Amino acid sequence: MSNTAFGILRSGYVARNTFVHRLDGRTKFLFFLWISIFNYIFYDLYVTVVSFVVVMLLAFVARIQRFVVTVLVIIVLPIVLLGIGIIGGPFGFAHNRTAIAAVQLFGYTIGFYLEGTVYVSVWTSRLAVTITAALLAYVTTHPSDLAAIMLKSRLPYKFAYAFLATIQLIPILTNEITTIYQAQVSRGLNVQAKLIDRFKSIVVLMIPLTLGAINQTQIRAIALESRGFSAPVKKVMLRDPRLKASDYAIMIIMAVMTCVFIYIIWTRGLVPFMTGIQYVRPGG
Amino acid sequence: MTTGTKSAGPTTVEKPAGFAILQIVLIPVIAALNYVTGVIINILKLPLFMDTWATSFGAMVAGVWVGAAGGFLYNIIMAFTLWGLPAWVWGFINIYIAIITWALWRIGWVSISKPAKLVAAGIIVGVTNVVPVTLISWGVFGLMPTYAGTAWIYAAVLASTNDTLSASVVSSIASEIPDKLISLILAAVVASRMPARFTLRPPKA
User: Fold this and answer.
1) Of A75, A113, B131, B190, which one is least surrounded by beta carbons within 10 A?
2) A123 and A182, same structural domain?
3) pLDDT tens-digit map of A234-246
4) pTM of the full predicted structure?
């Protein structure tokens, strides 16, 4: 993963005042689950492409399209290229029948095949949809709302703490490792060295980082105890997120679309719109 | 709940009273350490993932459930942010890593004073990890090649067998064994450097 991707996770919440931001976090996470599940049920490129257009439109509305495109380029594009190059290409994917483009070289047919290319496109577009929906929910929901939602959803507050503390710790430890890295480089650490030496470099970076983090753990535990973290009382939150009319509207749309999807599956199967392409299970 | 001075003046808290809270606080640290390892791997341009070493470390220094919970949480956060929903199932890999590391650690195989056993333990973790990795790759990625480092192995096996399952298993073996071996060695080295005052296990009765 590149620095850009880490930067995105480090930045966390993107403060804007858009329709998507104003939606309740529960609605956004429900949408994320809903669209991800249906995309993994259908084996149809048209369904996933339409879903992708919908989530990208929402990303534009939320004005986080740059984030989303960067993440997709970093995570999904390499899988698309590898997949189409190998599975869609002349490497023996068992379902390849229809050549899209082929040349004859020394008696061998080298080309790209429709079945393999569609297979890769369906799986990677599923990934693209679910990643975009996840980013939509994550970067447009304030961390405090996230905590309140978890508690309202009756998750144990210790889990809610662990989840939010991780999100807070990631930028702290990332900054710390940058400082440690610079300090070690100034002491002669060579990051351009041979592979074995670079593996050894991990140790000199990880030991100070880990010991520092463990030390902070002790301090954080004391701070939590002194604020009554373990006290056997009902915990309350500063924020109290409530569902609004727009949230109910989105949920109604999802419910209606669920009925439509069930009807489509019932009447037309898992490949409802692509013609001439058979359903291919993972592994053939 | 705290140790404090008897004299007049502010109470000085030196240690948290319960190990339970210490272990809860350690869970996010493990998740974040797994994550930050990715930053280091990126800086050093290494051809591995190594995002399970902190899970092994947590299982060794604070118990199996701390390692498993920290590792699982790391995957949950990545699934809800950068990897997309289906990637949460990678969390089971981290639970498996925590359990097997803890078991190997209990029998004394995960120790830098026994390098041969440590290497054997790393290979065992890597080889046995191929099964859950292949299952997840089947369900989430359709057994497609997802890692450029072993894509050529995948292509070679696919070309000779016409079977994506075989290609996925062989390329997983090629990436998992070195990855888990080096991760376990790193966890053992870092755990061996932990000062005794950073005790994260409850005292034996």
Assistant:
1) B131
2) no
3) 777 777 788 899 9
4) 0.79
